[in-house]
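ok new one. same drill as before - C-alpha cells go in, u give me an amino acid for every spot. 241 of them this time. try not to just spam alanines like last time pls lmao
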C-alpha cells in the first residue's frame, strides 16, 4: 500500500513529526504511570508503527499478539521478521482448544459466513477470550486503532476506561493519524510490515475473513466483506455489558 508515497512533502513530514512526538510522549507516560501496561499488536501497519516506537525508546511495555490459528502465512512471516529485525519475540496468545473444538463441532468449521452472531462467536473464541487472558494483571492496554479506519471507530478517543476487560485504561496513540502518516513513518524508518499490504490488503485479520480491496473502497471493506459496515468489529474493541 502507498507504494507511490514520496517523503518529499514538507507538509506531510511536518505533520508526521508532530504526531510522532505526541505518540512518544503518550507512550512514555503510559510506561511510567500505568505499569504494567501492554500493547496488543495486531501486526497491521499501525501496530508496526507502535512496535517501532516502543522498541526504539526501550519502553517498559509488554508487547503481545493473538494467534487465532487461522492467520495468513504472510502474518506468520512478519512475526518471524519482527524477531529478526528487533530481536523481539512476540508473546503469542492462542485460543483455548476446548472452546475451538466445541464451537466448530456445534457450528461447523466456516460457520462465521452464515450470520453475524456466528461470526462474532468465532471471534470471541479465537480473539476476545485470549485477549482477556493477555490483559489480566495489567493496568492499561494500547492499540493501533485510528478514528478514520471505519464507521465503527468515528470519534475514537485517545484514552478511555475499559470496563469490559477487567477495568483498565485503554490508549489509542494513533487515533488522529492519517493513513498517509502511518505509511510515511513506516517508509521513513524502514519498518517491516505485512507483505499483504502490497497486495491491496489495508486491513488484515484471519485469512478466511480478509480479502483485498479495490480502488475507492473503504480501508476496512476487505474485512468480513459480506456484512454491513456497522457490524465490522470482532469484539476486541466493543463495549460489553
Amino acid at each position: 500500500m502507498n507504494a507511490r508515497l514520496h517523503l518529499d512533502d514538507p507538509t506531510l513530514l511536518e505533520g508526521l513529526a508532530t504526531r510522532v512526538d505526541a505518540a512518544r510522549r503518550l507512550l512514555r507516560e503510559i510506561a511510567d504511570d500505568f505499569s504494567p501496561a501492554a500493547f496488543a499488536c495486531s501486526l497491521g501497519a499501525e501496530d508496526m508503527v507502535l512496535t517501532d516506537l516502543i522498541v526504539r525508546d526501550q519502553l517498559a511495555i509488554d508487547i503481545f499478539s493473538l494467534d487465532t490459528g487461522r492467520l495468513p502465512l504472510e502474518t506468520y512471516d512478519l512475526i518471524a521478521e519482527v524477531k529478526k529485525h528487533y530481536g523481539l519475540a512476540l508473546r503469542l496468545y492462542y485460543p483455548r482448544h476446548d472452546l475451538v473444538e466445541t464451537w466448530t463441532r456445534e457450528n461447523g468449521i466456516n460457520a462465521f459466513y452464515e450470520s453475524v452472531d456466528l461470526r462474532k462467536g468465532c471471534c470471541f473464541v479465537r480473539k476476545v477470550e485470549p485477549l482477556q487472558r493477555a490483559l489480566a494483571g495489567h493496568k492499561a492496554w494500547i492499540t493501533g486503532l485510528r478514528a478514520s479506519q471505519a464507521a465503527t471507530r468515528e470519534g475514537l478517543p485517545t484514552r478511555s476506561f475499559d470496563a469490559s476487560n477487567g477495568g483498565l485504561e485503554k490508549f489509542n496513540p494513533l487515533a488522529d493519524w492519517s493513513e498517509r502518516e502511518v505509511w510515511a513513518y513506516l517508509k521513513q524508518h524502514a519498518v517491516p510490515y505485512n507483505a499483504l499490504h502490497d497486495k491491496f490488503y489495508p486491513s488484515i485479520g484471519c485469512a478466511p475473513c480478509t480479502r483485498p480491496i479495490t480502488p475507492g473502497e473503504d480501508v476496512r471493506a476487505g474485512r468480513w466483506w459480506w456484512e454491513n459496515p456497522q457490524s465490522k468489529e470482532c469484539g476486541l474493541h466493543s463495549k460489553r455489558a
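The beta strands are 37-40, 61-66, 91-93, 140-142, 159-162, 168-171. and btw Residues 10-33 form the longest helix (24 residues).
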